[in-house]
Amino acid sequence: MATITKDDIARIAALSKLKLTDKELVKFQTEVATIVDYFALLEDADCQDLEPTAQVSGLVDQTRSDEVEDYGVSRDQLLKNAVDSTDDGYIKTGKIL
Questions:
Q1: What's the start-to-end Cα distance of the chain, in Å?
Q2: What are the percentages of helix, strand and coil residues in the chain, rounded to 5?
Q3: Cβ(73)–Cβ(39) under 8 Å?
Q4: CB 3.0-4.6 Å disulfide test: which of 20, 47, 82, 86 passes with 24?
């Protein structure tokens, strides 16, 4: 079992701005030690022949070419639909914040 002291847990709790009772310190001391021990199992994993990967699902990004499509409507025709809220060729919106 990993050597995790009550002082270690108290320090982590203080950094996290948590107030723990003595009973909780003992409980978390045991739980954190168990978690650290579990991660220690990874030291035994043989990863020599494995290639690094950023994802494991096998999915591949689907992309398309960025092409301009002409719908036969000019910018000015479209801005006529927003006559009350345009400025210098742009549609104005209200504040979002």
A1: 51
A2: 45, 5, 50
A3: no
A4: 20
